[in-house]
Every structure is written in C-alpha cells, then in structure tokens.
C-alpha cells in the first residue's frame, strides 16, 4: 500500500504497521520534529486517567501512548490490530495487557471502560463511523473519548508549507530513518485526505457522542477531539 484511500483494507494496513514496528517510535519523533512527545503529553492530560479507572488505548502500537495512563494508576489495555506492533510492545513493557483487536469489532463487553482513546490511528481504520460507535459501546455512561489525530492547520500560509513538507520532505526523511518508507508515503497522503476539525466533530456526534469539542495543537497540525457517553 503506497497511496491513501479512505477505503482501507485492514490486512494491508496491519501488514504495513507490522513492518515498521521496530523503529516506529523513533521514526515518529524524527518526522514530527520532536512534537510527538508533546502531543502524547497533551493526550495524557485530556484523558486524565485516575487510579481505579479502566482505560482502553486503541491503535496503541508498542504501548508508548499507554504508559502514562498506567502510571497514573488506571488499569490500561493497549489494543492494536498489528501483531507486529503488539509483539514489539510486549518486549518493551511485558507487564501490560496487550490485546489484539479491530476497532470496528472490539473484543470487549459493553460499558467496560471509563475512557477510550486513540492517537493517530482512527485515520487508518477502514470504517471510521463503525469505530466511533464501537468506542461508545464499550464506554460507560458519562465516560469519555479522546481522539488525537492529524488535522488541518488553521492558518492558510502555514497549511501550504505543511502540505509541502508532507509530500516532499517526509518521504526522503522516512527513507533515511524508517524500515518501510513507502508506509510513510501512505501516511502523508492519508493525512491530506482526512476530514478537518468540524468534520470529525460531526462524525463523533453522529455516532452518539455528546458534548463534543476539539482543541488544536501545533497550529492545527494535530487536533484533540473529546466527547462523552450519554
């Protein structure tokens, strides 16, 4: 897979992430110019995991995004459909309950979690709306969802510079630091094809989430969306 499509085949996407698992975190740090760590901190603040809570971290990959929730005292389940990512995560954090699962058919009971979060993964799910409904199904009434995803810069001149970086600078950088640079061509194109902030907010509302709001990070390169289960 080298070109973006919102009709993604799950097996192709999973295979793509299997190939980049070993160097995925360091590649993201390089390609984001160090911003990835800042974004993870903001996600942790938004989720606000507390002792005794249950948190589901979807598209958790190697578990890097899950550690802050567990450190805060919440029982945290890192879930991903890439077995390669899960194996790499289990090597690094053997104590965490890594779970294989498809975001559109989650292997969890109704009302199982106080919070569900997904960072930079919703864009790669083949049926976004089904995933949003599944997240709602497994979240307790009053519980929350936090979605961190690439979005659309809000300042037009910066948006043009950003788009040029994605399509021209990112592939050669990925060639130097990634084990599968074609995957990052796909990722760059999928970012351009993704809905803007109001568009994703509407999809959350249509899926049944309430009090939906978002906050831009890094000038809108990334947006944090949040909603609550009725």
UniProtKB/TrEMBL annotation:
EC numbers: 2.1.1.163
GO terms, molecular function: demethylmenaquinone methyltransferase activity
UniProt KW keywords: Menaquinone biosynthesis, Methyltransferase, S-adenosyl-L-methionine, Transferase
One Pfam entry name: Ubie_methyltran
Tree of life domain: Bacteria
InterPro entries, alphabetized: SAM-dependent_MTases_sf, UbiE/COQ5_MeTrFase
UniProt GO BP: methylation
Uppermost EC category: transferase
Secretion signal span: none
Reaction catalysis annotation: a 2-demethylmenaquinol + S-adenosyl-L-methionine = a menaquinol + S-adenosyl-L-homocysteine + H(+)
Residues at which S-adenosyl-L-methionine binds: 62, 80, 102-103, 119
Listed pathway(s): Quinol/quinone metabolism; menaquinone biosynthesis; menaquinol from 1,4-dihydroxy-2-naphthoate: step 2/2
Record's function text: Methyltransferase required for the conversion of demethylmenaquinol (DMKH2) to menaquinol (MKH2).
Family listed: Belongs to the class I-like SAM-binding methyltransferase superfamily. MenG/UbiE family.
Listed name of the protein: Demethylmenaquinone methyltransferase
């Amino acid at each position: 897979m080298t070109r973006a499509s919102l009709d993604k085949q799950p097996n192709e996407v999973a295979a793509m992430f299997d190939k980049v698992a070993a160097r995925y975190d360091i590649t993201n740090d390089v390609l984001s110019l160090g911003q990835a760590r800042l974004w993870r901190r903001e996600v942790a603040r938004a989720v606000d995991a507390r002792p005794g809570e249950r948190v589901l971290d979807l598209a958790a990959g190697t578990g890097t995004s899950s550690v802050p929730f567990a450190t805060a005292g919440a029982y945290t389940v890192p879930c991903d459909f890439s077995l390669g990512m899960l194996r790499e995560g289990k090597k690094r954090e053997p104590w965490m309950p890594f779970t294989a699962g498809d975001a559109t058919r989650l292997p969890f009971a109704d009302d199982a979690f106080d919070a569900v979060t997904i960072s930079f993964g919703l864009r790669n799910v083949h049926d976004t709306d089904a995933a949003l409904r599944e997240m709602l199904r497994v979240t307790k009434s009053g519980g929350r969802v936090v979605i961190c995803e690439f979005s659309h810069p809000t300042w037009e001149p910066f948006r043009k510079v950003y788009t040029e970086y994605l399509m021209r600078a990112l592939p050669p950088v990925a060639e130097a630091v990634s084990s599968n640079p074609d995957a990052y061509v796909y990722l760059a194109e999928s970012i351009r094809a993704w809905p803007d902030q109001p568009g994703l907010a509407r999809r959350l509302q249509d899926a049944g989430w309430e009090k939906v709001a978002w906050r831009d990070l890094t000038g809108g390169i990334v947006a944090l969306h949040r909603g609550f289960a009725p």
